[in-house]
Amino acid sequence: MGQCMANSALRIRLGRPADARAVSVLVRRLTRRWILPEQTHEAGVALLSRQGAAAQRMRMAEGHRFHLAWLGDVLVGVATMRDDGHLTQLFVGTRYQGRGIARRLWRRAMADAVRRAGTRRFTLNASRCALQAYRRLGFVATGPERLSPSGVLTTPMELKRARARSQKA
Ligand SMILES: CC(C)(COP(=O)(O)OP(=O)(O)OC[C@H]1O[C@@H](n2cnc3c(N)ncnc32)[C@H](O)[C@@H]1OP(=O)(O)O)[C@@H](O)C(=O)NCCC(=O)NCCS
């Protein structure tokens, strides 16, 4: 009940350049805690360098869609979609995890991409610690865990949207 009440105050809106620093702080903190332990030192350094405020701002300028979840003035989660089909970031602050915030962010990001581009297939590269959560969101692995060109260990996943009944007829 307490969690429901807390989440009902959750606000999700699109990110703008002024949010880049807050996004970077949240994403880097969560990466250090949850993702770096399963990566090599070099891959971790490369990953963190791609998560700085300037890099986040550049992605916004390139058209990546940032969906930001706020509780009051606290940024508690972020989902970033590239090309209306590839989820590049999904992070929820540690103390806010397990309350359905990632699911709400994902729903919002997916609906936005579907509205903009009619996307039927979504992809992402999952860190080991997020695999189960992505499975629960409906993603399936499309290959084994492997090193990306930048040396980051992830599993490629996809989600294919079911065709709406009315479109079948
Ligand atoms: C992965 C992450 C985004 C999930 O956020 P969250 O807000 O806790 O997720 P939700 O509460 O919305 O849960 C969504 C679903 O995943 C499941 N889930 C979440 N974390 C899980 C875990 N560690 N193990 C198993 N299932 C999990 C939930 O049970 C829920 O499924 P259900 O609704 O069918 O019960 C969050 O844990 C996180 O930021 N992790 C660290 C960073 C990270 O690895 N990000 C991904 C980069 S690829």
Overview in brief:
Helices cover 41% and strands 27% of the residues. The protein has helices spanning 2-8, 20-35, 41-49, 53-61, 101-117, 131-137, 165-168, and strands at 10-14, 65-71, 74-82, 86-92, 121-126, 140-141, 146-147, 153-160. The chain binds coenzyme A.
Structure, described:
By secondary structure, this protein is α+β, with helices and mostly antiparallel strands. The protein has a domain at 2-119: 3-Layer(aba) Sandwich (Aminopeptidase), CATH 3.40.630.30. It contains 7 helices and 8 strands. The protein has helices at residues 2-8, 20-35, 41-49, 53-61, 101-117, 131-137, 165-168, and strands spanning 10-14, 65-71, 74-82, 86-92, 121-126, 140-141, 146-147, 153-160. Strands 1, 2, 3, 4, 5, 6, 7 and 8 form an 8-stranded mixed beta sheet that branches. Strand 2 (65-71) and strand 3 (74-82) form a beta hairpin. Helix 2 crosses helix 4. The longest helix has 17 residues, at 101-117. The radius of gyration is 16 Å and the shape is globular. The model has no long low-confidence stretch (mean pLDDT 93). The structure holds coenzyme A. Coenzyme A binds next to helix 2, strand 4, helix 5 and helix 6.
